[in-house]
């Protein structure tokens, strides 16, 4: 490994918090996903095995925790501090996965955000925080994000952050019941020597 892999870790910028997903988040997380069912369905990962399904919440968290223990994933929820709340409210999820060490030093990042909070800079801020942690603390060299060409909100996130469009991947991932095309976007540590979060915050309107 190039840097120091530490887990669990919590990252904050302004009102936005990235913290580890927990078993006790089930009720809040499930309610949020239920409210956003139609919003997220077109981009939802699915199981290509005939008759296969997706893990339930507890199975998902168990798998993510196991991956974190193996230093191959960072499973975060995206939360937001709001007036009148004792703790940050969950507004989405961000997972750094497929962490590869050795000569690659890279990872893949995926995210989703509550439709009611979309367009407020939450997703770009969360992605920037996670990317800076991967580059600065873990010592990774490359971050990759794969997005359906039809997913306008997610495409705007990588556009705002300056991820490079590296091209088209036909039938790349099984999404919403079928093999779906994706575009690959990437960023390397050398492209953001001052940090991605700092660059993003400077670019935002006052």
Automatic annotation (TrEMBL):
Pfam families: Acetyltransf_3 (PF13302)
Keyword Electron transport: no
PROSITE patterns from the UniProt entry: GNAT (PS51186)
Record has Transferase as a keyword: yes
Chain segments annotated as transmembrane: none
Keywords on record: Acyltransferase, Transferase
N-acetyltransferase domain span: 16-190
Extent of the signal sequence: none
PANTHER family associated with the record: [RIBOSOMAL PROTEIN US5]-ALANINE N-ACETYLTRANSFERASE (PTHR43792:SF8), GNAT FAMILY, PUTATIVE (AFU_ORTHOLOGUE AFUA_3G00765)-RELATED-RELATED (PTHR43792)
Family: Belongs to the acetyltransferase family. RimJ subfamily.
Official protein name in the record: GNAT family protein
Species of provenance: Arthrobacter humicola
